[in-house]
Design goal:
This protein is of the alpha/beta class. About 40% of the residues lie in helices and about 20% in strands. The strands form 2 sheets. The protein has an 8-stranded mixed β-sheet, sandwiched between helices. It has a 6-stranded parallel β-sheet with strand order 11-10-9-12-13-14, with helices on both faces. Strand 5, helix 3 and strand 6 form a beta-alpha-beta unit. The protein is globular, with a radius of gyration of 21 Å.
Length: about 400
């Protein structure tokens, strides 16, 4: 099958869509990706991709076309320029394509307008379109401070309704998305299917780490933005400052990194170590040294509906998870691990749960339970088994 994939983000940006496309190729499909100029998460174009370089290339069997789009940089104006530039450029490129693809697959993150190019191809050639919803719109705008009563929000509510209802099937990464989409857009639940994310296979090769009383190491890995509430981790580290054998390692980058680092420095935190962003190939080193993982999000009704992809990676690695997060993730962690997940933005409870896990001396056993649950529920094999059914039906 020839599959046209639409997603504003792709390699070298750190998104799972790259592995999805390469796996589809290994399964015998022909895959072409229409993406943007790589610049996430820092907002600056990646070295080697400046000024329209590598507009068309083939990587691991996947054909890639990069549409010229404005980098995110900083500030809401630049963010909007980034969003609309890709939406415009991708539609212009789609108009040049012929009737050569059997299916359109939209990997929908923010902004939702990235799906418009896929809808254009679907309507032009009467093709099936599957939308993989990883980010709810227009609700995500509220996380960025835009009021639901504003003209901007209402405009994107109309845009989002059109896009979601133009999809033949919507796959969602969180069970809570199903009722939300149904209630917000009066959608037929039968066309919304649950397809949780999976982890890269390299994390399944990690061996359990036996807890050492001399040191207890926790890891946060991923984007460091406003939504991730890494400040909650720093506040918990302040509370744990006198526990000299507990260390928190932060691997990642984002618009909040400098502010978070400054707060840690101002509080003389020797128990927090920053490493910056690392390529996925190096991440097993940081997972190996960790006794447990941390997941946090801000206290927000929309974000509480999500299940961050890092949760599956943490579980696949066979690590226990300490959370300060609400909603879908909280339900999952408290179900599987029987505790160690507290309320979003509650640094006191996060610190208490870190101590509780450390003193329990059960990190290794809990990690093994997490990996077993991952294999039974979230594995890559199960993901592609279900995705193949949706593609072929």
């Amino acid at each position: 099958m020839k599959i046209l994939v639409i997603c504003q983000y792709y390699y070298p940006e750190p998104f799972r869509i790259t592995d999805i496309c390469e796996t589809l190729v290994s399964m015998g499909h022909e895959v072409t990706v229409v993406t943007g100029t790589p610049n996430y998460p820092m907002g600056e174009v990646y070295r080697g991709y400046e000024n329209g370089k590598k507009m068309d290339e083939t990587l691991n069997g996947v054909k890639i076309h990069r549409c010229m789009s404005a980098p995110r940089k900083t500030g809401s104006i630049n963010r909007l320029r980034n969003y609309f530039s890709y939406a415009r450029a991708s539609k212009e490129y789609i108009r040049t394509l012929k009737d050569e693809y059997d299916l359109v697959f939209v990997n929908q993150l923010s902004p939702i307008m990235m799906a418009e190019a896929g809808i254009l191809y679907k309507k032009k050639f009467n093709k099936k379109l599957i939308l993989y919803c990883l980010d709810l719109w227009p609700d995500s705008l509220r996380v960025g401070g835009i009021s639901s009563k504003s003209i901007i929000y209402k405009f994107f509510k109309v845009v989002s309704a059109k896009i979601y209802n133009s999809s033949d099937e919507i796959l969602v990464s969180s069970k809570m998305f199903i009722d939300h989409l149904n209630n917000s857009f009066r959608m037929d639940k039968s066309k919304i299917k649950y397809l949780p994310q999976y982890s890269e296979s390299q994390f399944l090769n990690l061996k359990p780490k036996r807890q050492n009383d001399n040191e207890f190491n926790l890891l946060f890995a991923g984007n460091i933005g406003v939504a991730q509430s890494v400040e909650t981790i720093i506040d918990a580290a302040i509370i744990l400052k006198n526990h000299h054998n507990i260390f928190i390692h932060i691997v990642g980058d984002g618009i909040e990194l400098n502010r978070i680092k400054e707060k840690a420095e101002n509080n003389n935190l020797d128990n927090v170590i920053f490493y910056g962003r690392k390529p996925i190939e190096e991440m097993t080193k940081y997972y190996n040294m960790s006794d447990a993982m941390i997941v946090t999000l801000i206290n927000d009704d929309v974000l509480s509906l999500t299940l961050p992809g890092k949760v599956q990676t943490y579980m696949a690695a066979g690590k226990p998870i300490v959370g300060a997060i609400n909603g879908e993730t909280s339900l999952l962690l408290n179900k599987v691990q029987n505790g160690f997940c507290g309320k979003a933005e509650d640094s006191s409870e996060l610190a208490s749960n870190i101590l509780k896990l450390y003193k329990s001396n059960l990190a290794c056993q809990i990690g093994a339970k997490n990996r077993e649950y991952y294999m039974n529920t979230f594995s890559k094999e199960k993901f592609f088994e279900h995705l193949s059914q949706y593609i072929n039906c």
